[in-house]
Amino acid sequence: MGKHILIITSYYPPEIGAASNRIFQLANGLNTINHRVSVVTPLPNYPTGKIFEAYRGRFSANTLEQGIKVYRLWVFASNSKNKLHRLFSMLSYSLSLIWFFITHPIPKTVIIQSPPLFVAFTCMLFLKKKSRKLILNVSDLWPLAGKELGVLKEGFSYSFLKKIEQFNYKRAGLILGQSEEILTHVNALFPKKETFLYRNYPDFTPPKVAFKSTEKEGKIQVVYAGLLGVAQGIYTLVQALDYSKIAFHIYGSGAEQEQIQDYIKKHPNLCISYHGQVPRAELHELLLKYDVVIIPLLNRIYGSVPSKIFEYARLALPVIYMGGGEGEKIVAQNDLGWVVDAGNYDALNLLLKKLTPADCFSKRKTIQEFSLMHFDFEKQLHALSTCL
């Protein structure tokens, strides 16, 4: 039997989204190679900001899910844009974690998801012992990412968050980063810190894809699937697209959902369809009928590499990536689709006018073959296991 590993995260199934999927795959993967894995997470509430109906009225819930012990703790759930509400939500989970640390034995190996910074700070502050290895899994560089998104500004709050960030890095025995940029940032602050590049590779059986065009009514079928949030800018995208040669399909939920639905209602002549939120396995099947998937970001975010790049490659789907940075390099250098500068909708429309379904489907086979060879979840997992 391997080690007893505790994973502390703010997101976990039945919640949806990249963060939830990423941590579940890590937990499940470690479990399958004979580590004993436990997970601590809030009562599910993302992305609605409301506790899921099955868990309402409960202070906590302990379950065994696919061989993994899952502890769900009380949280003041909120997805409010009010910064104080969001801060209190994070602090409430931190308080629940302190209660958990006092009342439960903590194993010697602990993996902590960051951000949120305050949750990671709580863990680093209360769990640090010479005999315990704290592993920080960094998926985004807060507060820098917040500054680039326009959510945070230079000042006291930003400086305070930077100090918390550095405290977390300093206390960690090992730092996992989803991108080379994250590890570069960490090593610039702490040159001797042990780091590991842990990409968000997917872990599902790749589909058998028919490598032929499915052109409909002369329009290329473009799809977006994921969070409808500020960073992605899907509401801005639907307003900027030229629909003369394309049909645009949207799956997901988030802060911009109502604006998008309202825009569609007011523009019935445009080829836009909102399909709501569907389970991940079902979504994979649905995506195969489209020509190209778009991964947009309003602004380039240092350290960010969307996990969708690897997921779509495994599905043999070419992407249009407009986010810059390391994600752009991965797409361009490995011929996984096309790249457009973040926010450059003129260039995007020009590309879409030139693309045909045949162009998209000609890439499918090589994309999937490359993915299976280079984006190997199991190989990466075994390499990580030797570092724990």
Describe this structure in words.
40% of the residues lie in helices and 18% in strands. With 388 residues, the chain is of the alpha/beta class. It has 15 helices and 14 strands. β12, α10 and β13 form a beta-alpha-beta unit. The protein folds into two domains: 4-202 and 376-385, Glycogen Phosphorylase B (Rossmann fold); 220-373, Glycogen Phosphorylase B (Rossmann fold), CATH 3.40.50.2000. The protein is globular and about 65 Å long. α2 (83-103) packs parallel to α3 and α3 (117-127) crosses α5. The mean pLDDT is 91. The protein has an eight-stranded mixed sheet, with helices on both faces. The chain has helices at residues 18-32, 83-103, 117-127, 144-149, 156-171, 180-189, 234-240, 257-266, 280-287, 308-314, 325-333, 345-354, 357-361, 364-374, 377-385, and strands at residues 4-8, 36-42, 60-65, 68-73, 109-114, 133-138, 174-177, 195-197, 220-225, 246-251, 272-274, 292-296, 319-322, 337-339. 41% of the residues are buried.
Q: What is the compact description of this entry?
A:
With 388 residues, the protein is an alpha/beta fold.
